[in-house]
Amino acid sequence: MGPPTLDKIRALQRNPRNIRNLCILAHVDHGKTTLADCLVATNGIISSRLAGKLRYLDSREDEQSRGITMKSSAISLHYSNGDQEYLLNLIDSPGHVDFSSEVSTAVRLCDGAVVIVDAVEGVCPQVNAVTGTLFTSKVLEEQAEREEEEELGGDQARDWSSRPEEADDSLLYFSPDQGNVVFASSVFRFAHIYNQRMGIKAEVLLRTLWGDFYLDAKAKKIMKGAQAKGKKPLFVQLVLDNIWSLYDAVVTRRDKEKVEKVVTSLGIKVLARDLRHSDPKVLLSAVCSQWLPVSQAVLLMVCEKLPSPLDMAAERVEKLMSVGARRFDSLPEHTQELKRAFLRCSSRENEPLIIFVSKMFAVDAAALPQNRQRPLSQEEMAHRRELARQRHADRMAAGCVDPPARPDTGDSAAENVTVTYLPQASVSLPAKMESVTPEEEEEQQTFVAFARVYSGVAKKGQRVFVLGPKYDPGQGLSTLPEGVSASDCVSAVPHLSCCSMERLYLLMGRELEELEEVPAGNVLGIGGLEDSVLKSATLSTSPACPPFTALNFEATPIVRVAIEPKHPSEMPKLVRGMRLLNQADPCAEVLIQETGEHVLVTAGEVHLQRCLDDLRDRFAKIEFSASKPIIPFRETVVRPPKVDMVNEDLGKQQKVAIIHKARWSDTLNVDSSGLVTLTTPNRLATVSVRASPLPPEVTGLLERSTELIRTLEQINMSLREGRSLDISPRTLEAIAGFKVQLESLLQGRKWRDVVEHVWAFGPRRYGPNILLNRVAGYQRPSLWQCLGGGVQAGEAAATRDLDNSIVSGFQLATLSGPMCEEPLMGVCFSVEKWDIQSSVPPQHQEEASTSRGTPADCKGTGSGATRPEATEHGPIPAGLRPEAAADCYGPVSGQLIAAMKEACRHAFQAQPQRLMAAMYTCEIMTTADVLGRVYGVLGKREGRVLHEEMKEGTDMFIIKAVLPVAESFGFADEFRKRTSGLASPQLVFSHWEVISSDPYWVPTTEEEYLHFGEKADSANQSLKYMNAVRRRKGLYVEEKIVEHAEKQRTLGKNK
């Protein structure tokens, strides 16, 4: 079969019923790209003999050298099944965990996936990470909920316990008898083979090939109960036995006669060179590729089992279009009408255009279709031949003239002189000089958007709206005039801009083909969006369209390096290159720290190396130096230990040490219980703060609920500003469930009614730290007011500004802790006292009270415990007092922020401090031969084995361990070297773990002095990490520069 023509693909794009958008998902090295090669070979794009060797969709040089896929690549394939013709938009995705963001960008554009599972290694972590969220009880609960809503009324009782079990969930599972599993071929193909050979109906074989059935040779019937009767199952009899016998004849015994009989009986043709080849696997591959072609089985399965764009579920559309916490039915009517456009997936002229861009990828400008050298037609070659003859005749007529003396007589003469006499170097010199300009360098890399059309027809040169992630369609519709188009200026609407789709491309793996228009339901590339789209965006011709929900990345960017050019004059090139890299990689982040360092944040070591290579070779094209990886840490506090370092009873010595650590001044006071009281320098504000550790379960819950806490903060901000917000019931249920979980985890006398007194979360208002309001008599708006309750808005307005100053100080304190300026984690700060005093002297207050009618005594507390005295006209609200307003917006507000920050830091230091290290989870599959070496490498790098088990039926061991991120660099290379390549680890960020050792520990008891000595200079892992971070940040490091110093002497003399 020859490769499909561009006209053929254009025709297939107009029929969404026969379009399949799919991606290939699997663990690393399980054969995704090999399968993609087999599918590409069916269209004649590559030779079937090169399938698995060429790796056609791995177009990068480092992909070919490493042998792994690093980016998602798409290609359009044509498949015919009877009289039906299908267009398959295939996306090959990476399997390495560092590039799971590329998997997310591919999955968003697809309607289905082909999951590959290795027969030896089985289901691995990456497969679970990618597909696990789809096949969970949540899917069953949502399905049961939909059926319940259809069957029952709103007032009827619902038995949620029984509905998931009663729901028909057979379509959610993989089973060969459903036709959605392929064993290097499909059950359908075997059923077709044995239908012709044995005369058994194909329908019967399809039902019985997989299951507890066996073939009775005497009766020539398929019987049930193979396991009970000790018979081989039908699948083993008809499928596996034949494959094993072929493998035994070709690879094990190399029986040429039997191979020839098998080839003849199967009716296939094998080349003579394959029969004579010294490697038996070549012959085995040649026989199996014709007998059991995996490509045909997969293509047939995809066309029959995967949905078309017309079959998109309504629930998926609502999830894509739901903006933040708002429910779908609260969106404007014009926005809700777009749901029907999604479901129709129509390409008519009056349909709104809706496109989602999942990522931007860089392409060399020379590889674009408009810049590619195309073959000349016969007419063009004849025309150029005639021009060359004419020029040759003119030169012969003019005679031979000395080149330097020849005058410039016009354009044609100048052209002749340049071509005939000037050396090649002089011709190419201006081009080389121009190529070094920044504009030319930037133009060498062009960005193409990886997108899909969900509705309407995308046309070349069409102008569309670019909808930012914070765009509100309700605000856009109320601001813009009715009937506005993307051609009009819409600069007045926030998070809304316009752009032109300059070029449309058909993605064909390594090549791009230019298109004039693309109908709905197809995957495409769009050129000309690099100035309007950073990483992903939603494009539409209707301002009523909401932005799609953001992509969810499995890998967390945690590895960061600081980059600087070797020549300072090349800093602009580095900045421009990092900007392009940030746009080209969906997971990479580029930051500029407060110190001025340019920092690159990546998901792992392999991802970091790829980003550095791209920055050096493609985007910046300069030499630069990268620092050692910057390791993130967290700071926390723990409960005071009851025993010392030698497991002796500590008694009261730890508390004495804490008191002596505290710094005393006229504005700072620390009592024996750890309560810190701090007064601002102008003596007008006083805060008392106490720090305590949160239970680990609460910290984990806060870390998992980051998005929910952020949504809660947005809701509270809208309520404080008086804006109405329609919140979806599902969001309210999630917030209520989050509150119930917090209450269940915070039990005991110490945490009584804590949830109702939560003031804020931090840092950045959604982190894993809590600020509590324990100020006596201060009733502020509840954090959970969206669930009902809370105080009146008038009370909130009276203390809102000073209230915000306390929260801001807490946010700053949790963002950078006192140990090494790293964020805090798992710490609860309780504000137990907060007093505010007016800055106006008493005599001025009296004058103000007589002239304005304000109270003479303005002393009060921000907690509201002391109310301003009433005048004859009644009490004056605090928010209307000019003195209070001047204090709030004057020096008191800023000093209160600084005082709150310092109070939190001192309260933190009054408790036992610990560092928290980022931890990788590491799953290793290895044989018993190198098991000891695996343990050796893990122990050397502070790793800890969680459990080890042997895989049934094999000699493979599966080891699950945790490893600090700080010790992970070079781990994979050392692992492969020590195990001779028999084991390769997969590192996935797992959690934060407290380092047990105290970085500030010094011996305090007699037993500790006897055990560790007076210096106690044994290795302290926590202190080593802390000093390394402080040294990198330029902070003071307390360490001895010179130890065991001796007088210098000349070694040549014996003295």
UniProtKB/TrEMBL annotation:
Q: Where is the Tr-type G domain?
A: 17-126
Output the Gene Ontology terms for molecular function. GTP binding; GTPase activity; ribosome binding
List keywords of the entry alphabetically. GTP-binding, Hydrolase, Nucleotide-binding, Ribosome biogenesis
Q: Which residues form a coiled coil?
A: none
| CDD domains the UniProt entry points to | aeEF2_snRNP_like_IV (cd01681), eEF2_snRNP_like_C (cd04096), EF2_II (cd16268), EF2_snRNP_III (cd16261)
Mitochondrion as UniProt keyword: no
Report what the protein is called.
Elongation factor-like 1
